[in-house]
Design a protein that fits this description.
The structure is a single chain. Helix content is 23%, strand content 33%. The chain contains eight helices and 18 strands. The structure holds coenzyme A (COA).
């Protein structure tokens, strides 16, 4: 049996999510945790946040059951991207999964056609996905264009704490605070040449409220706002740089290294991982060995509109917070 959810008016809270969607979140969480085990999928709260509470609207989703068992699922979540002409509706592609034993039956191909056509009908112009080796082959059915592999660098902090930085643990209270309200204003105003995800205050607040993920931290100087988290490799703590944003009124490019130093100091980590690229805030390090990367991190584009030409599409900035890595 095939089933989809059409986009509905957005929900503001758990009480507004109907039982049907709640039940689907439970079934899809179980499937994702079975095939892609991750602490995000310990319960359905992550999918509820991701699919039902996004300020840009509910996810486009599809799933398939065999004999009452959920065997395949796929989703697109709304985002906004902007270029010099202004913001337009995009989606981010995620949670492509078919159950072991039900793979290579064409489910992923079929679900892609269904969700992308629903997205196109809703006025979405294009979507971005970060594929691994298996899903990279699978998305050829939609004619995606590979933009490139996200670079992943190991970056060492400077020897001294940088001046003028403040760091905050992200919590529900912090996201409601006057400090967050102030520092998150105007982060989405930098002039752009190519395309960039729109980091409005509202979108950043939602993104940082992700449940079941490692705790986030926000770091603030006069020039920059940075988002990070902490991970570890073979027992050694590693800071992970998730996003670097110029504050309102600042112009780049500027060095991101003071941010990296503050992030490492805050997490008591000897080094940081930085993935992606940023036209306004520059970070250089040593490329991480391939064996340390969880997947090839193929950055790919699917255009749904003549106005977004796949071959001419250039991203100004793409970092971990733009996707669902953390
Ligand atoms: C990636 C994934 C979602 C693909 O799902 P799937 O349902 O097996 O995908 P499809 O059946 O549509 O296509 C898979 C392959 O089977 C082939 N296939 C489809 N129907 C077929 C059939 N009836 N007979 C033989 N082969 C078939 C497809 O051509 C495709 O071939 P390819 O691998 O050479 O491209 C699945 O492998 C998976 O869940 N992997 C683990 C989770 C994961 O890595 N997700 C991606 C995260 S980025």
């Amino acid at each position: 049996m095939l089933a989809d959810t059409a986009p509905r008016p957005r929900d503001d809270g758990l009480d507004d999510v109907d039982d049907v969607q709640r039940r689907q979140n439970v079934l899809n969480t179980e499937l994702l945790n079975a095939e892609l085990p991750d602490q995000r999928f310990v319960d359905e709260s992550y999918l509820h946040w991701l699919y039902d509470l996004n300020p840009y609207g509910p996810a486009f989703q599809a799933w398939e059951d065999e004999d009452g068992v959920r065997v395949a699922h796929y989703a697109l979540i709304p985002q906004r991207y902007r270029n010099a002409d202004g913001p337009v509706p995009f989606v981010f592609s995620l949670n492509a999964v078919s159950r072991s034993g039900a793979q290579r039956k064409g489910y992923f191909g079929m679900l892609q056609l269904r969700v992308w056509s629903a997205a196109r009908d809703a006025g979405i112009l294009a979507g971005i996905g970060v594929t691994n080796a298996r899903s990279h082959r699978g998305v050829q059915i939609m004619g995606w264009r590979m933009i490139g592999q996200m670079p992943v660098d190991i970056v060492l902090p400077g020897p001294f704490p940088p001046r003028g930085w403040q760091s905050f643990r992200v919590s529900p209270d912090f996201l409601d605070s006057a400090v967050f309200g102030e520092v998150s204003q105007g982060l989405d105003e930098q002039p752009v040449d190519g395309w960039t995800n729109c980091w409005t205050s509202e979108y950043l607040r939602w993104r940082l409220a992700s449940p079941n993920t490692p705790p986030y931290a926000l770091h603030v100087s006069d020039r920059l706002v940075a988002v990070s988290t902490r991970s570890q490799f073979k027992g050694v703590p590693v800071a992970v740089v998730l996003k670097l944003l110029l504050r309102r009124g600042m112009s780049g490019p500027v060095s991101g290294h003071p941010a990296v130093t503050e992030i490492c100091r805050f997490h008591r980590a000897p080094a940081a991982v930085y993935a992606g690229f940023n036209r306004h805030v520059k970070v250089t390090g040593v490329p991480a060995p391939e064996r340390l990367k969880p997947s090839p991190l193929n950055l790919e584009l699917c255009s749904l509109s003549d106005t977004i030409r796949q071959r001419e599409f250039v991203l100004d900035t793409y970092e971990f917070l733009d996707m669902d890595a953390y």
